[in-house]
Amino acid sequence: MVTYIDAATAPLKNTGQVRLYSPEDFKAMHKAGQVTAECLDGLADLVKPGVTTQELDDFVYRFGRDKGVLPATLYYRGYTKASCTSINHVVCHGIPNDKPLREGDIVNIDVTFVVDGWYGDSSRMYPVGELKRSAERLIEVTYESLLLGIEAARPGNTTGDIGYAIQTFVEKERCSVVRDFCGHGVGRLFHDTPNILHYGRKGEGIELKPGMIFTIEPMVNLGKPQVKVLSDGWTAVTRDRSLSAQFEHAVGITDTGCEIFTLSPKGLHRPGFDKAS
């Protein structure tokens, strides 16, 4: 049985309870989310053939340094990079390296900055040059599934409603939802209760209440949903080597719906598809 707790009185560790944050906390999360979103905007012009993911990671590190904030992934459980860069059939947690990106690649860049103790967690897909239609379609389906999940994130609904909205749309489009990874509570902790599955049934899971903060981050495959983690202990790939895509926002449940903390300041929610405003 899940219990809810006032975030102001909760210990700074994952206790299995769902934290309910205050309006002031939402303002702090918006600040953290906007730093991350601004960094993701800045990456849009850098992703191109010949650029290495290490160069992109260097940009993320310098961006945080110049803002006076730290990337949450740096030295997290032994991870040594400022971001995760997942290319083509890599589902998530791809490690930046010196291999150049190639024309037609797709890459997810996942960034989290810690701003005044709050974690702004978000990721976007970036096209590398011209894409095949199948890759474009996968990105479109994944982004739309994120929006549908966010639409279901409102008080009185459940975590299962979020998963149901995502799964039914993705499978209708003849793609599959990854089951091995999920969204998560976020705020004062990088990963917290509850888990947000991207598949499920209406009305199942835990009730969404005002003050909850978590990520929604569907991972969608063109092929089958099964994945495996490589020997580095981080990189997750599709077992059938089909393309995979992911988008992620950090959101907070309000009295009437939800607030998205990580919206793009420039309107680059889908870099390469959206034009900067």
Write a brief structural summary.
Monomer. This protein is of the alpha+beta class and 277 residues long.
Describe this structure in words.
With 277 residues, the protein is an alpha+beta fold. The protein has four helices and 17 strands. Strands 3, 4, 6 and 7 form a four-stranded antiparallel β-sheet that branches. Strands 5-14-13 form a three-stranded antiparallel β-sheet, with no helix packed on it. Strands 8-12-15 form a three-stranded antiparallel β-sheet, covered by helices on one side. Strand 16 and strand 17 form a beta hairpin. The radius of gyration is 17 Å and the shape is globular. The termini are far apart. The relative contact order is 0.19.
Whole-Å distance between the termini?
45 Å
Overall strand count: 17
Q: Could you state the oligomeric state of the chains shown?
A: single chain
The percentage of residues in β strands lies in 15-25%
The shape is globular
Total DSSP helices: 4
Order of helices and strands: EEHHEEEEEHHEEEEEEEEEE
Average residue-wise pLDDT: 97
Q: How big is the Rg? A: 17 Å
Question: Can you summarize the main beta sheet?
Answer: 4 strands, antiparallel
Helix content: 10-25%
Give start-end ranges of low-pLDDT stretches: none
SSE class: alpha+beta
